[in-house]
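new request in #modeling-help
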Amino acid sequence: MTEETKRLGIVTSGSLNKGVEVRLDSSASVEDMAVGRYITIEGEKRRFFGMITDVSLEVIDRKLTVTPPDVSDPFMAEVLAGTSTYGTLHVLPLLTIGGDVASLLEGPQPVKTVPSHFSTVNLASQRDVELVFGSEDEKRFYIGTPLDMETKVCLNLEELVKRSNGIFGKSGTGKTFLTRLLLIGILQKGTAANLVFDMHSEYGWEGRSEAGRKVKALKQLFPSKVAVFTLDEENARRRRVSTDFVVRIGYDEIEPEDMALLRQTLNLTEPATEAIYQLSRRFGKNWLQSTLEMKDSEESGDLLKELSIHESTFQNLRRGLATIRRLPFLVPHAPDNAVRHILEYLDQGINVVLEFGRYTDITAYILVANLLTRRIYNQYRERTEKAQGEDTAPPHPLVITIEEAHKFLNPEVASQTIFGRIAREMRKYNVTLLVIDQRPSSIDDEVMSQIGTKITCLLDNERDIDSVLAGVSGKGALKSVLSRLESRQQALIFGHAVPMPVVIRTREYGSAKSYKDLIPGREIEMEKQAEKDIEELWE
Amino acid sequence: MERVGEVIEASTTDFVAQCYELYQSPPLGSLVKTRDAGVELYGIVYNATTTSLEPGRRPIARGKDETTEEEIYQASPQLLKLLKSEFGAVMVGHKQDDKLHHYLPPKPARIHGFVYLCPPQEVKEFSQSLAFLNILINTRLPVSTDELIAASLREMSQVYEDRRAFLVTAGKELAILLSGNFNQLKAILERIKT
């Protein structure tokens, strides 16, 4: 026991489902307690680690509330505090630590029981928190600190990238900052390669804080490990961002499956989407070009009849396709294959950020993200299957970051899009998603349930909160924590990569010191390079 | 150790002692003790009386022609021999084989046992445990329990350097014992607050 341990009280009642009640000692003031703080309970056989989820006031005799004593007299107040009047804490036990030697080695385990009556409850010390969340090392990335504490909360990134993850929160609560941090973490630890579909051009070169201050993004911090692709060369030039590749997509690269997802945004009818398949069967690869070139002639009328496509359906489809054609990055024939380039970079372990420049329109975003991801996913799938067959190492894990995720993952399209599939089939092919969204309730339940680690900033819509917390034990208690988050720099993390739900104050980002902390020292870099060189010698 | 009297009446729960000097009974609530074959019996003074030696003979008023009260006793020196002072103490614990117990002794006090006023060190030792408060609350006495408890705590607190801390601790103990009776608790706390 360290000397910093502060006794709070004793366990008086409770249950595993609802949490335990702790009677506060007279020396501990209710006003010092805060929802979301960590405590340890010294059970008879093991220690419990938990979180305060509620604080309440009690009196021993109802008469006291009817005829309150004169507490202006300090003696009276002191005698009554903690005896006739006392505070209670509602605590949610989350983990057990120790017990015997074997379980000490295994580390913290989820709770399966409650501490016995009158076990002592202490405020968790820095060491306890460290024991639970680990300290920063090769796999763990320091993401923030628990409330009222200096200890680092670390995410196990190796575990994190094995599942799809989500970052949620109202607009302006710090989703972008958190995402940037997480991407840097993944980059720093090298646990996976990132492909970021950067709708607002915030992750590649630089972004802006809410106060309007410029903050460095990935490429500035890790120039050798990040490639910035763009759809809008002119915009990149104006922002003075050096790009590595300009993405152009040929009409002939668009497949009917890519269009299915755009049904809602392009306002296509169900028969119109069906017609795309027929047209592509008819015209082959160049179906889009050919369809748009079809004149309102008798000839084409016959063709439509032959394909049994109704005239109005066809018009509906043409209107939709015309919208797509107006996108400037679409060309009849792309000079270079973007997918191949992206894969080349990813294979070298270089992270790719695709900036959309001025094309922040959702149609462009969905089309490009879906198109590229489908092909990349197929490549990964082939490689993984090949690797399994030949017993070689599977490809380096890939994390695909998408914003406005509910557009890809809403219940109507989740079953069709590649993102829905990645989220569900997950890690089989070493490709996972990092989903960023402000309306988690619009995301398909099935996809939500597969998300491994959820990081959520303040949410205040009841439906959104419910959908984020669906299926988590102690949901009610977490709900009260979630709705009390501050609107900035605070987030609740729970799921696969952390042993228990934790509220953090996000680590600082944007100052010169924070950049220095994030970039590992030169020596480490050199050491790694040397290791790599040696490995290559053996290949 | 100051000797204050001699046991003249004893029962399991209390004893009555007569003072050697008139009016010299220990203060209400003070801790006294008497010995019986190796066992030291502790009591708290709950009552004191001064009456005529013979039950049938009541004193009469004598001071009509005197100017001060002292002159009455000087004019009739036999008075001091015709009156007696007695005090009652409720048993709150005992010490056997150097071990202090805060519950009733196995046997009552012996008649003519000497009664002593406990010195500060012993009061301190005895009041390390406040279990005697429970005996006081649950014993029926001619004086009000509230008054007796308050008086005994006031007396005991005087041997502590930090009186207030002792009284707060005792107050908290009372708050637990009297959890169902806030009015009584309040009455006692009013009487012991510093």
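bot summary: The interface with chain B takes residues 26, 60-61, 63-64, 67, 69, 73, 75-76, 78-80, 82-84 of chain A (CB under 8 Å).
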